[in-house]
């Protein structure tokens, strides 16, 4: 049986309290069935998580965009998985390419964060994906294989881990891979997950991310082994985000 689809929005470093109105509109849409069979999650900046959890009232899940590997301690500016869970978050994105690039996060660091998420009771959404140069050099599957091997926690199950395949060159650019390319990479990821986690690997949701919009969601999300989307820019506007989620309605 195919895993329950997941449509997750990553607001990145966007959003003030006023934008909780968009979250409210997303929740209203979801409660009226706009996302059909899909689970919907919004990952606002950490500053809004507490209020977002209250506003969402469990209609949609709320997630963080990063967490520290530790639980508490002398780490100025960092936030632990336990702190996010304490606010009512249920997911956390780890290893987004923007963090890998801006903060030099290695796959080893990402794995430690994913383990921390599980320890804190959150479901990590582990991001992987190749750069333009790596794709042009024909190294996409090697990069994906190495990132999976390095970033994934042991003991993952369909219920506690999500993968997001996000080609770096497709993020925020309006460019997307062909459906054939998406199918190839997602099939490869599925194979790697089942090799590592056995039957659970077939249940782990593998999201596609990178310039997903209402106009292309239909074709991208229907590709085999694509179990949903991680949406950046289009998750900031309720009508666009719901326009993507309605693929599952
Ligand atoms: O986490 C989301 C992705 O980076 C995709 O961003 P985008 O939809 O703005 O391309």
Automatic annotation (TrEMBL):
Transmembrane segments: none annotated. Substrate binds at residues 10-12, 172, 211, 232-233. It comes from the Bacteria. It catalyses: D-glyceraldehyde 3-phosphate = dihydroxyacetone phosphate; L-erythrulose 1-phosphate = D-erythrulose 4-phosphate. It holds the Pfam family TIM. It is found in: Cytoplasm. GO terms for cellular component: cytosol. One of its GO terms (biological process) is gluconeogenesis. Pathway: Carbohydrate metabolism; erythritol degradation; Carbohydrate degradation; glycolysis; D-glyceraldehyde 3-phosphate from glycerone phosphate: step 1/1; Carbohydrate biosynthesis; gluconeogenesis. Its EC number is 5.3.1.1. It is an enzyme of class 5 (isomerase). Keywords: Cytoplasm, Gluconeogenesis, Glycolysis, Isomerase. Homodimer. Belongs to the triosephosphate isomerase family. This is Triosephosphate isomerase. It comes from Terrihabitans soli. The lineage of its organism: Bacteria, Pseudomonadati, Pseudomonadota, Alphaproteobacteria, Hyphomicrobiales.
């Amino acid at each position: 049986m195919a895993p329950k689809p997941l449509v997750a929005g990553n607001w990145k470093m966007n959003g003030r309290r006023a934008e909780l109105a968009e979250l409210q509109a997303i929740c209203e849409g979801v409660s009226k069935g706009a996302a059909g069979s899909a689970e919907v999650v919004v990952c606002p900046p950490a500053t809004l998580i507490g209020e977002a959890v209250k506003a969402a009232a469990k209609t949609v899940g709320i997630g963080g965009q990063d967490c520290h590997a530790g639980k508490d301690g002398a780490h100025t500016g960092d936030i632990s998985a336990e702190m996010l869970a304490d606010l009512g978050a249920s997911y956390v994105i780890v290893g987004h390419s923007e963090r890998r690039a801006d903060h030099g996060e290695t796959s080893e660091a990402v794995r430690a964060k994913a383990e921390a998420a599980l320890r804190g009771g959150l479901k990590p959404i582990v991001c992987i994906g190749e750069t333009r140069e790596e794709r042009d050099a024909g190294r996409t599957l090697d990069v994906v294989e190495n990132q999976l091997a390095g970033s994934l926690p042991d003991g993952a199950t369909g219920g506690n881990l999500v993968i997001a395949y996000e080609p770096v060159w497709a993020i925020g650019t309006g460019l997307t891979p062909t459906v054939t390319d998406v199918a190839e990479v997602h099939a490869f990821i599925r194979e790697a997950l089942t090799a590592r986690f056995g039957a659970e690997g077939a249940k782990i949701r593998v999201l596609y991310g990178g310039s997903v919009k209402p106009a292309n969601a239909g074709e991208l999300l229907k590709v085999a082994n694509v179990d949903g989307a991680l949406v950046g820019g289009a998750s900031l506007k309720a009508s666009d985000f719901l326009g993507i989620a309605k693929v599952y309605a």
